[in-house]
Amino acid sequence: MTNILITGGAGYIGSHMVLKLLEAGYHPVVVDDLSTGMESFMPPGVPLHRFSIGDADKLNQLLRATQFDIVMHFAAFIEVGESVKKPEKYYQNNFFNTLTLLHTMKQHGINHFIFSSTAAIFGEPHYTPADENHPKQPLNPYGASKLMCEQLLQDLDTAYGIKSVCLRYFNAAGADPAGRTGYRTANASHLIPIALQTALGQRPHMEVYGRDYPTLDGTCIRDYIHIMDLCDAHLLAMQHLLAGGSSRQYNLGNGQGYSVQQVIDTARQVTGQAIQVIDSARRPGDPAKLVADSRLIQQELGWKPRYPELATIIEHAWKWEKQCYRAGC
Asked: Is 142 known to be catalytic?
């Protein structure tokens, strides 16, 4: 059985990936310090080791005890605004802890790695949709820390033959259609969960950060990708590497941009609820528009989104939010 180490596997994306791997017949093992993840996200029988990937001693113990075929790395901090205010936190966890993880992998002969990257490495778009060759000029420490990891992976391939796939997300959203897991955190910062929590009355209002961007309605435009489509891409990337494939970098999105206002309007339609909105100033480090050109991964790995519609993404997220609300989670 293929053993797969999932860092950050108790978090939003990682927990969906664990389900995907189990369904595909693989054996995931999770490392998560639970600083943002939830132990309750773990399906029965999936091992959970609670420590930080920056802890080299505990990583060594785990990698001595279990022979892993590949590592999928989701254990990063992802808040753009916080990264501007606390850059050292992001460089420490997102870069230095990733370096520790990769160094430990090398010591144990693990030569396959899938990296959870981000569209934030591109910064303000020079053109849209953005393909893999788009200039990389991150506007914030979050994007910069991820770009440093991508460069590190290129160098490790050259030096040691460690093969990797970097998947650059353009706003993961939605939830498991079966309602087994979803986005859950004490202080949600993603647009769709915030809108839905406002619809449920868990928040008195939501904020729109800036209405003076050079877009049709003045609000930022983003490319939303369903979380299970994202997991499909990870599965294909893993199979590519385990079959002897070369290191690759892919952009992941729908190729469709939706403005903040369009997301709010769609959330109102899906939920049938009023969503109170307050306008606020722009946040530092937010580009006006980010949309993905995902043709390369479609051509090379055969990936195709199964849930490309914004309404479907929000419907699945709404099902999860209502379920969580009733359960008090």
From this structure: yes
| 77 CB-side CA count, 13 A | 25
What are the C-alpha distances in Å from 2 to residues 66, 67, 68? 11, 9, 7
Please report the pLDDT score of residue 285 as a whole number.
Answer: 67
Selecting among 12, 90, 91, 142, the annotated active-site residue is 142
Q: How many residues in the chain?
A: 329
Least confident residue range of 145-154, 170-179, 285-294: 285-294
Nearest to 14 by CA among 248, 231, 242: 231
Model confidence, pTM: 0.94
DSSP-assigned letters across all residues of 76-115: ----HHHHHH-HHHHIIIIIIHHHHHHHHHHHTT--EEEE
- Average pLDDT estimate for 19-40: 95
Name all domains of the chain by residue range, CATH numbers in brackets.
3-173+224-252 (3.40.50.720), 191-222+255-327 (3.90.25.10)
